């Protein structure tokens, strides 16, 4: 049995599926700049910061903008995204997540958020999950994005737990790499074909338990 004293969760794609809203808002931006991109390309944006995502998208469209224009478009995209986020409800929490977090608590395991998003607190509020977290580290706290381990190392520190006693839950390749770079175990949430560097991969939290976590 391994010792697990803290679990660190990515937000988008792990706690809740906001990727669809990011996609809608980024696509609107692309369309206003007279190009389009696919859902497949959208996969590359998972776990990546807002400005890095914008750079990738502009590249796909062959559009070059000044720094000021980039900031203006990123701000517009975020506003469109927030219009969608404001309509979110607790029904959008992914299956099995609340029960798993409750059982972590009951077993004295700390819970932290490690997300690249600058909107994480608002999202957690909308889905009524804010109270589950002992620490929240997000895009407002970090200087280096995933696959750099900074976000998770800060999460470990905030919960007072050594990285080797932390398990990270991630849906993005860059996020799994960040966990491993931080010396942590990683549970991939999604497809084993994509999250090949994770220690184990689950497709949903339904059926996952603290017992299984400790057997990793
Ligand atoms: C998460 C998502 C990314 C998003 C990033 C920044 O990592 O997976 O798709 O770009 O957060 O989100 P924000 O809400 O700050 O624009
Ligand atoms: Mg994610």
UniProtKB/TrEMBL annotation:
<dbReference type="InterPro" id="IPR006439">
    <property type="entry name" value="HAD-SF_hydro_IA"/>
</dbReference>
<dbReference type="InterPro" id="IPR010976">
    <property type="entry name" value="B-phosphoglucomutase_hydrolase"/>
</dbReference>
<dbReference type="InterPro" id="IPR023198">
    <property type="entry name" value="PGP-like_dom2"/>
</dbReference>
<dbReference type="InterPro" id="IPR051806">
    <property type="entry name" value="HAD-like_SPP"/>
</dbReference>
<dbReference type="InterPro" id="IPR036412">
    <property type="entry name" value="HAD-like_sf"/>
</dbReference>
<dbReference type="InterPro" id="IPR010972">
    <property type="entry name" value="Beta-PGM"/>
</dbReference>
<protein>
    <submittedName>
        <fullName>Beta-phosphoglucomutase</fullName>
        <ecNumber>5.4.2.6</ecNumber>
    </submittedName>
</protein>
<dbReference type="InterPro" id="IPR023214">
    <property type="entry name" value="HAD_sf"/>
</dbReference>
<keyword id="KW-0413">Isomerase</keyword>
<comment type="similarity">
    <text>Belongs to the HAD-like hydrolase superfamily. CbbY/CbbZ/Gph/YieH family.</text>
</comment>
<dbReference type="Pfam" id="PF00702">
    <property type="entry name" value="Hydrolase"/>
</dbReference>
<dbReference type="GO" id="GO:0008801">
    <property type="term" value="F:beta-phosphoglucomutase activity"/>
</dbReference>
């Amino acid at each position: 049995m391994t010792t697990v004293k803290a679990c660190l969760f990515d937000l988008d794609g792990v706690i809740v599926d906001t990727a669809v809203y990011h996609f809608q808002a980024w696509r609107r931006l692309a369309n206003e700049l007279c190009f389009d991109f696919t859902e497949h390309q959208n996969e590359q944006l998972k776990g990546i910061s807002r400005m890095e995502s914008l750079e990738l998208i502009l590249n796909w469209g062959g559009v070059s903008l000044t720094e000021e224009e980039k900031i203006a478009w990123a701000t517009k995209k975020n506003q469109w995204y927030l219009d969608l986020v404001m309509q979110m409800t607790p029904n959008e929490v992914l299956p099995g997540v609340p029960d798993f977090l409750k059982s972590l608590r009951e077993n004295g395991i700390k819970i932290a958020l490690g997300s690249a998003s600058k909107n994480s607190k608002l999202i957690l509020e909308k889905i009524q999950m804010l109270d589950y977290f002992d620490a929240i580290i997000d895009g407002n706290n970090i200087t280096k994005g995933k696959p750099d381990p900074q976000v998770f190392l800060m999460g470990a520190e905030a919960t007072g737990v050594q990285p080797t006693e932390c398990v990270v839950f991630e849906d993005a390749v860059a996020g799994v790499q960040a966990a491993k770079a931080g010396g942590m175990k990683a549970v991939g949430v999604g497809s084993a074909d994509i999250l090949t560097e994770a220690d184990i991969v689950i497709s949903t939290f339904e059926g996952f338990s603290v017992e299984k976590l400790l057997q990793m």
